[in-house]
Amino acid sequence: MTEINKQDFTSKLSKIFSANGLSSYLSLERMEKFYTLTVRMLEENEKYNLTAITDPDKIILNHYADCVAMASKLKKGASIIDVGCGAGFPSLPLAIVRPDLRITAVDSTAKRINYVSETARMLGLDNLTAVVMRAEDGGKSPEYREKFDYATARAVAEMRVLSELSLPFVKIGGQMVAMKGKNAEFELFSARKAIATLGGRNTLCENITLKGEGETLTHPLIIIDKKDKTPASFPRPFAQISKKPL
Question: Under a CB-based contact definition with an 8 Å cutoff, are residues 204 and 178 in contact?
Fold first, then answer.
């Protein structure tokens, strides 16, 4: 079992969340869940790659606070699809702090989905369902197409590709919320045609700045409103999406 001092962990979790105005999302029960999540993630990380960040303090800032900072953007009782969820970010932290949300985490890799599903069950997160699925297939399926209030994505693909993989899931009046890196504004400029073609409008790019112990994390958050239906011809097969982005 991975050894992490629970008292030290929960103290640092509380301090970092407090420093970033996120204290309202914590309770004793939720801190316990974040601790259990960290132990499990690091144990499973030894078997297959889930995260390059293995220091608990950095996990709190870079994974947990970073994902929870998105929580205030999401309306109460919303349905969310986390596209390319990987190790469960942002879906697992959001499910912990926002039990009112209905979250579907999707990824094409069965090992990752099994990990997310088993972890959600271990943590008692009844509001999270994990599904093995390629986004371009799900976006065509009547079960998932334009059924969600939000599509979230974290470090999945550049915006032209990501928009085609994510916007088809979003219902009119909903939003795509993408956690991006330093090239976000350039990607967003390049994706203007793609976003408009897929039914998106009113793009917003804002910087999220988080304070840790001795470090500051800043990254852009892109929010796109879904104003029109996505044309039936999208999303295309992934080979076409990647070879010839919109």
Answer: no
Give residue for tokens 């949300």.
101
Q: What is the pLDDT of residues 9-68, one digit of tens each?
A: 999 999 999 999 999 999 999 999 999 999 999 999 998 889 999 999 999 999 999 999
Dihedral angle sign, alpha carbons of residues 93, 4, 39, 126:
negative
Q: Which residue has the tokens 């239906």?
A: 229
For residue 44, is it left (φ>0), alpha (ψ between -120 and 50) or beta? alpha
Please enumerate in sequence order all residues whose Cβ is within 8 A of that of 40, keeping only pairs 6 or more positions apart, or say none.
Answer: 119, 122
Residues sharing a CB contact under 8 Å with residue 146, sequence separation 6 or more, in sequence order: 168, 169, 170, 171, 172, 229, 230
